[in-house]
Amino acid sequence: MVTWLVAFTKPRSEVLAQEHLERQGFEVLCPLMRVQKQRRLKWTWVEEPLFPRYLFVGAKPEQSWAPVRSTVGVASLVKFGGTYATVPQSLIDLLRSGAEEPQVHRPLFQQGQKLRIIAGPFASLEAVFEMQEGADRAMVLLDLLGRQSRVSVDVSQLIAEDHL
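Now predict its structure.
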């Protein structure tokens, strides 16, 4: 029977910490998701941790947790009221099944699609969808002061013109 704890890593050190923990004989889970990111003016798909800065670390009862805290890339083990936070095996199994098929954030709208902003400071303005920015934001083009301007907007504030 494996007990699963949550390790909090140093910034962008999930892979490094995972490698070092696995070398020490621990089971490690770092679920990933695929997102589109702009790199050098080009959009590419990259895999990022589903839970940035967190790893799930599994150990058998005879293994000590002490080496985890001093592992390269690990900042600490997550505690609640002085007790280590444990994760049930059922959740680990669920995360592993999702890890086999990385989740892909698909844009909610198509490039060039006409939208209307329904909330926020630009409410009631027409916009043109340019690209998705993560799961919650989108880059749109607005006609402001006689020229097109790029603006980042929460996707919950957008609706397709053909759905009005």
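The chain is about 15% helix and 45% strand.
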